[in-house]
Amino acid sequence: MQKKPLVVIGFVGAMLDAADGPGRWEKWRPSVALGMYEDLLVSRVDLLVDERKFKKLAGRVSADLASVSPETDVRMHDFHLHDPWDFEEVFGALHDFARAYPFDPEREDYLLHISTGTHVAQICWFLLAEARYFPARLLQTSPPPKQRAGDAGSYAIIDLDLARYDRIAQRFARESADTASFLKSGIATRSAAFNRMIEQIERVAVRSKAPMLLLGPTGAGKSMLARNLFELKQRRHALKGRFVEVNCATLRGDGAGSALFGHVRGAFTGAQNERAGLLKSADGGLLFLDEIGELGLDEQAMLLRAIEDKRFPPLGGDREVSSDFQLLAGTNRDLAVAVAEGRFREDLYARLNLWTFYLPGLKERAEDIEPNLDFELERFARQHGERITFNREARDRYLRFAMSIDATWPGNFRDLGASVTRMATLASQGRITIDVVDEETARLGRLWGGARRGAAAAASDALLDALFGDRLSEIDRFDRVQLAEVLRVCASARTASDAGRTLFQASREKRTSSNDADRLRKYLMRFGLEFAQIHAAARAL
Asked: Do residues 405 and 493 make contact, with C-beta atoms less than 8 angstroms apart?
């Protein structure tokens, strides 16, 4: 297969390429050497040079390259830099050059020659190639041990695609896994969907400073994840400021604006001294606004300005203050609905909605209950200096309850943490027994019972109406009560087998039922229903 033409882009070396007179051929000149490697056939060389300062040098390099490699097309590009050691200027100029350059990777291969130019230029070459502004590999050339005519020295090509380097790729994979584990507080979560989401959050946290929005029910772990994200960014030296957290549900009236944006003396009754505000306190750090859906519309407008301009006026003040913070917001509300109802600003929601992640509740991550149980036991040991364990039978019984349909976990991981704390505190001689588990599950049943029964009854009635409509009056009240419970279990279960195991658990234990899913299917057929149909109707409510 014929290779594509090879193009080298680099600087004319004001020092290294500057030899003059007949003796210049005894010197190693990196730009001229590009045409002297027998196993590196260069089709074109594009050299950047400040022609106002080095026009004569550019002409000599171009002529000498043509003499050693007549088949190589040499093109000079006038490239003026006021200060070649100013990183911002060099990066900006090379970025502009890259955007204007007619790259055609389908037809040409590209190398960036990093042996000439200042160290700042070499760093900029690397960054722009790594970011794919230059679709190129790096070319490093080196002089021979002893300079003499005709010796081009050596060269090395560096490909920044780390996937090509197994050891490096493995190292970064390990570091990524360690980072994901850190974001999960070391919990070995088993939910594939949750683990994929954490991996995405890790990539966004490392690469982006844009606001992030964490959705999910109360107790799903938004606050813990926010703090872990802050510590991760601190490890990567991406933040130098503080972690500032506030629950917006606690902010009301003038106190909300004052707490967030600060105030000047006399801004309102009781404002006897100035106050910096939480946004200013988060300068250079991370601001976590939990329950952001509870903010008033005025505070939302000021927050949007602070996000976009990094400046805002304190209450009662004319002089703006600056604060460069990264915003992380959390809510258990549907902000799209709040926008439609006029309770949340559409422009602020659009600004927050770039990176949105939903943290599912404990009920939605049944497979993660066991590792979180171990995490809570470890946390209890750290806090109380005493390690508590389960008896095997007690652990199995607790997990059966915790993963059952009857365990609603309305407070999610907070409920689980409180439950473990109670059992660990009541454990005798460091062991949680069946008696302790039975007492705890009974307590949870009482705590959740009333609210659960009311919510379950309402949900079952709504589901019956959705599935049967006017035909519901044709079903006997006796059958309707039983059917409502079956529908509740089916709507909560992930599969027909799971629902069957719950509904016919007593029969299974007596070994009088062998195929729970088939038994459930036959029952549903009496009413013209299918499991998938019930799930679809429940999701639509």
From this structure: yes
**Chain centroid offset of residue 442 CA:** 39
CB 245 within 8 A of CB 290: yes
Q: Is the pLDDT of residue 454 over 60?
A: no
Instruction: Please name the helix (run of DSSP H) or strand (run of DSSP E) that holds residue 155, with its range, or none.
Output: strand 154-158
Stated as kind and residue range, the H or E segment containing 488 is: helix 477-492
Environment class of 442 (CB within 10 Å of its CB; exposed 0-12, middle 13-18, buried 19+):
exposed
E strand or H helix that includes residue 496: helix 496-503
Q: Could you report the per-residue pLDDT of 226-270, keeping only the tens digit for each?
A: 999 999 888 877 888 999 999 998 887 767 888 888 877 766 666
What lies within 8 Å, CB to CB, of 44 at 6+ separation is 5, 6, 7, 8, 72, 73, 74, 75
Token pair listed for 412: 């999610």
Asked whether the beta carbons of 238 and 229 are under 8 A apart, the reply is no
Q: Of 186, 161, 187, 183, which is closest to residue 172 (Cα–Cα)?
A: 161
Task: Tell me the β-bridge partners of 326.
Answer: 286
Residue 325 three-state SS: coil
The whole model's pTM is what? 0.64
Q: Residue 214 and residue 198: Cα distance in Å, rounded?
A: 12
